[in-house]
Amino acid sequence: MTQYFKELTWAAITVYHESLGEPFNGKVAVAHVIFNRSRSRGLSISRTVLQRNQFSCYNDNRRPPVKNYDALGECLTAVLEAQVQQMKGETMDNAMFYLNKTAVLEKCGRLPSWVSELKEVCSIRNHTFYRGDK
């Protein structure tokens, strides 16, 4: 397996775990966040997604299994779509962060402080996307 394919696989598996139940454009948006972070930090996709507390599916050093390979295939398609968009200069307004506000509020009772420091880019179903400047 080539390194390029391994990196795309990391992106697809991350999109799979982070956006199950989201529409296709929500999956593409999560892929954009992965690509935008990777580019801005000068890191590979795998190093980007595995950074501590960056993507909740990997918190506590978890590596959850893939259970639905058809859904993973859709996520790989979403990753490729985001990559083509990135090549055309479409970066989803450089979104670098996202969260599910409802899930966070249910779990923590409040939103994280970093949300107030960011500019909201868009919302797609359950996820709200942000970039670093207000």
Explain this structure.
By secondary structure, the protein is mainly alpha-helical. The protein is built from 5 helices and 3 strands, in the order H-H-H-H-E-H-E-E. The protein is 49% helix and 10% strand. It has a 3-stranded antiparallel beta sheet with strand order 1-3-2. A hairpin with a 2-residue loop joins strand 2 and strand 3. Helix 1 packs across helix 2, helix 1 crosses helix 4 and helix 2 (24-41) packs across helix 4. The longest helix is centred in the middle third of the chain and has 19 residues, at 69-87. It is globular and about 45 Å long.
Summary of the model, kept short:
It is built from 5 helices and 3 strands, in the order H-H-H-H-E-H-E-E. The chain is mostly helical and 134 residues long.
